[in-house]
Structure formats: C-alpha cells, structure tokens
TrEMBL record:
Top-level taxon in the UniProt lineage: Eukaryota
Keyword Methyltransferase: no
UniProt xrefs under CDD domains: STAT5_CCD, STAT5_DBD
GO BP: cell surface receptor signaling pathway
Name listed for the protein in its UniProt record: Signal transducer and activator of transcription
Main location: cytoplasm
Amino acid sequence: MAVWIQAQQLQGDALHQMQSLYGQHFPIEVRHYLSQWIEASFLDTTKLVSPACGGRSARQGLTGLNTAYVLLVFQSTYDRCPLELVRCIKHILYTEQRLVREATNVSRISPVGGMMDSMSQKYQQINQAFEELRLLTQDTENDLRKLQHNQEYFIIQYQESLRIQAQLTSLATLPPADRQLREPALLSKRATVEAWLTREANTLQKYRLDLAEKHQKTLQLLRKQQTIILDDELIQWKRRQQLAGNGGPPEGGLDILQSWCEKLAETIWQNRQQIRRAEHLRQQLPIPGPIEELLNELNSTITDIISALVTSTFIIEKQPPQVLKTQTKFAATVRLLVGGKLNVHMNPPQVKATIISEQQAKALLKNENTRNDSSGEILNNNCVMEYHQTTGTLSAHFRNMSLKRIKRSDRRGAESVTEEKFTILFESQFSVGGNELVFQVKTLSLPVVVIVHGSQDNNATATVLWDNAFAEPGRVPFLVPDKVLWPQLCDAINMKYKAEVQSNRGLSEENLVFLAQKAFSSSSNNPDDYRNMTMTWSQFNRESLPGRNFTFWQWFDGVMELTKKHLKPHWNDGAILGFVNKQQAQDMLMSKPNGTFLLRFSDSEIGGITIAWVAENPNKAGERMVWNLMPYTTKDFSIRSLADRISDLNHLLFLYPDRPKDEVFSKYYTPPLSKAVDGYVKPQIKQVVPEFTTANPDPASGNPTYMDHGASPAPVNHPHTYGIYPPMSDSMLDADGEFDLDDTMDVARHVEELLRRPVESQWGGQQS
C-alpha cells in the first residue's frame, strides 16, 4: 500500500488528477480499504489475466470491504466484462505511480519534498496505529469469548455444587445406614467441586482484570490516535480551509479524514460493546474485587472518546461567504464524518443555522446559557441531513439561506461596522446505538462580516483577510493580533493577490519593497530593512496613508480589482510593472530611447493605472523628459481597453525595457470596424494626447474619430533633475502634470452620439 500512502500526499493539480480517477465506476473507498490487496495483486502483474480469473479475483477481494453498494456497482458495471475492471484498476495504479514519481522528482529540487516525505511518514504511522488497534481489539475479543466460555462452564459447575448440596441435605431423611453409606462420597465430591470453584473464581477474576487492563491499553492508544486525527489532521484541514478563504490552495477533500474517523468510530464502538459485554458477565456472576470500578471507568472513558469523536467530526464542509450581504442568497454545507458508520442516517437529523455575535460565540464556548439568543434572522435555516450512498457521506446542504436582518452590538472605540464579526452556528441532535447515546452537536463557521451595501465590501474583506491570515488555533472568538510582522502580511496579501487575479505571477520582492515604502512612508530599497518591522491593523485599514484619503488596504484592493477586471492578461504577460512610483519610473525611462513606456499603478487614485513614457521636451531642443498620463480606472476601460488605448498612442513605441509594443499588445487589439452599411457610419473612438497627436488612419476603418485634448502642454525650462515635472498650462492637466481623461471621455461620448445619427439627418441642411 506504499503507492496509496504516497498518492494521498499529492498536492494541487496532481491531487485533483488522482481524485478524478475515482467515481461511480470505481469508488475511492475501495481503493483505500483494499489498498494492500490491490497493490499486491496488480502492481507485479505484467500481463492481463483472463476475464474469468480477473473478474472472480476482483470480486473476491471486494468481499472484504463488506459494502453492499460497491458490490452492486461492480456487478452492474463489470459483470459482463470483468476484464474491464482489471484494466480500470491497472490504469488507476499506473496513473498514481506516475503522479507520485513526478511529485518525487520535484521534491528532490524543492523544499516541499521534505514536507511530503514527512507527511507520508505520518500517514504511515496512522495506518500502523490502526493496524495495532485492530490487533488489540481482536485480542480482547478472543479473550472475552474465552472468559465467557470459562464463566459458562463455571456456572455449570456451580450448579453441580448446588445439586450435590441438595443431595447431602436430602440424606437427612434416609435411614442412618443408608446415609453413612452415601454421605462420604457426596462430601468428597462436594469438596472437589468447591475447590475447583474457588480456583476457577480466582482465575475468572484474573481473566477479568487482564481483560480490563488490555482495554485500558487499547483506549489509551485510541485516545492518542484520535488526538492525532482530530487535533492535528482535522485542525490542519480547517486551517487550510481558512487560508483558502484568503486565496490559499484548496483545503483538499475529506475522504481520507472520513475514512480515518470511520475507523476510529468502528474501533471505539467494538471496544464499547466488549466493555458492555464484560459488564454483563460481571453482573451475571458477581465476584468480589475491583473489577466493578474498573469497568465503570472504562465505560466512562469510552463514552468520552466517542462523544469527542462525534462532536468534533460535525464540521462545515463548505463555509458560508465571509462577507455576507443582507437580503442576498447564500449557501453552506455541514457534514458528519462518522454519520454513515454510526447509522445516524437511519433517523436523519435536522440541522439549524443561526447567526450569533462574537460575544455570543464566546459565551457558547464557555458553556454559558445563551438563552437561544441570535443576532439576526436567517431565512431557510433548517435542513435535514441526507445520506449519499455512493460516497458514504452524511451531510446537510443549505442552498437558499438569506440573512433577512442583523442586530449589531455596541462597537468598541474606532471600530466600524465592517470590523464587527459574526458567525453562523450550526446545531443538531441525534442518537446512536438504538438511543443508547444522544448527542447535541454544534459547530461555528469562520467569522463573517455583515454588510448592507456593496461599498462596504472592500473594508469587510480587509477584516476577513486579517482574521483568516493571523488567527491562532484554539483562540477565543474571534481574537487576532493587533499587529503582525511585515513578512507575514506580505505572505497574506500575496496569496490574496494571486487568487483574485487568478495568476501564478505573484508579488515579487521588488513589488513588496514598493508596498513597504508605501505602508511605512519609507524610501529604503533594501528588503532587509522591513523584515522585523510590524504593521498594525490601524495602519492596514483604519488610518489613511499620508496625504491621501484612503488606507493602505483600500489602495491595494483597488489595484487587485482593476487588475482582475481589466488587466489580468497583461499582468500575466509581464507587461505591467505596476508597483513603481513616479521617481522610479523616471529613473528607469530616462536611460531608454524616446517612445519607451511602462505601466504603473497610480499612487494618488484607488484602482488607477497610468502610462509613463519618455519623449523630447517640445520647449527645449535636445532635452528629454518623462510624461505621465492621468490614471485610467475601471470606468475608462469599460469604454476602451488598455491594449486599444496603447495602440491609439502612436508615440508609444517600446514597452520597457525594449519590447515593441505591437509584439506585446497586438493580440489584444480590437479588430477594425467594417465600413458603413445602410447609410450609417459606425462610430469608432480613439484616444489622442495633445502634443503627441499623429494621425495614422486605418484605411479599413474609415476616418476615425479622435478624443483630442486640445492645446499642447507648454513645459518651461527647468534644471535636469528627474524628480521635477514641468508645469502644465492646459486646464486638462492636474498639478502634477498628468493628463485628465474625464473631459476627453465626455467629448468622445458626444462624438459617438453624433455618429450614431443617420447621415441624412446630419448633413441634410448642407445638401439643401
């Protein structure tokens, strides 16, 4: 089963490829439970066996799973062609081996490899512990049967002693001669039986004590194994789920965890039944000694263990959205990992969802009486758990919940509504073992921030990002550190950026230095200067950046939104430097030929990107300068794309450092419009910049309409320092000498409106 152990450790795309091998045709549970038999039977086989042998051997192996639905699936799918089952298994094994081999090759040159080896070792230890538990449970089962057999024989002998005693008593009615004749034999027989009973009673007591000690050992190992699975593996899965909310890799499926939890449940239940049978034997034949107290302790311990297992495996498989808007439909899924094994689905429980505040969550975890308080009203908040036979899962899918209203608490200090955290409480009640045990289970969702308007989304997202990234396991709801090291924050925002932009190109070290300079108002270009610096929550999203009316997060979130909606392909192509300030852009461009340009995110506007280029100073021959366009925003790109705008500007020749612009952007240009049809001229908007207007009409598109800024800028002579920009006299330029395209857009829309009118109506007066 070495291949299966390693296959379970695959990550990312390799894990998805492995999981996609399984389905209705070959359930993953079969692979898991029969991994040893499958690998022993098929990995060393070089030729396909005959259909008869192949089908028969496969079916024989599956009987060990004792899963009726698997047999039904295999019979319906492969009964007429058992060789296909053999091919299916061999294909799965071959693919798993290839994926594992590729991951291993990567691990040799990647630090992740050591982690995979460590995980593989841990998984092997878990499986070995389960094997040890199986053997221990089988051993105590054998001992229990032996104890029962000996006790039954003891009871028979005890009845024999009672019969002998009755015979002795009846001798009193006989004549003395007869009594003297028969009494010695009966007395001898009674003495022999009583001596045997005494010895056997001591033996039974020893058997009982030995069995109890073995159960103690089993329960110790069970508790240890359960701690590893619930407190390590399941908690790590929940942590991955939390980081996935920030854009981290998917938390992965629950199939392996469920199989472990089901093994725990099965082993616990077997031992619980053994302890109950031992208690029944004790009651059947009470023998003075410490066994009664030991059995009570064992029963209490096993009940605690199964209670912890059941309550801990009631989990949220699909979290509700962490930024939750009122009057908006949302979904969530809860799952009981041991529900199928404990037959909870025989009487399907109902799950209820309630929204509660941070304070109510704290009180709930302290077992304080919350008097069924809630902090709002959720519609469609009840759902019955359903058992899915093909996957063996018991879950409740809330598909149409909606937060009708929210009741906010008094906020602390400078806390805003988008910093207030709530949580969705899911709770249910069910019984197992024929109402032997009744469980009330509860689980809390990740923190949610409730908003009533889309404008609150970015600040709410900041709260969620900080919580997901920096929450510590086992915390009091929902405490997070007020400040974190800058490298920690870098990891969080880089993860978020890559997920939002859906790109493998994350933030480089240079990008992070730029962000550090912005966050700390620093000019240092040395990454080491920021490694021990801390950033507070207030610096992140409560206090505005110096000289701005927005926070660090609001600026960064604007960059992500702009890139996600309009710039994704250009970011992935490496065409956008982005995180560069004006001074850096000037330093970079002044060493390049005229017409070289770069794209950088605006410092002064949320969600803006500007073009900086180097060109001649029109007022001083032989002098060059760097120009900056007024930033484009989402509004601008909804009219004309970035690539088309760059195409329009003929003075832009090379993308920094030296790539011809058409080589980079031509694949994104909008195709030319066709000629006029039925007397209508189709409008075409093109962008121009004053002082750099060079008409280059495309014959295929007719006479284009330009968005003209009007008068050229008039830069004055100034010392040749890169940090100084020439003053602009044009009213469409801002104080920093940047072009303002808002007025240009108005002109463009007016021209577009004119061009949509029929030719006759526009020129009729002139024709007459």
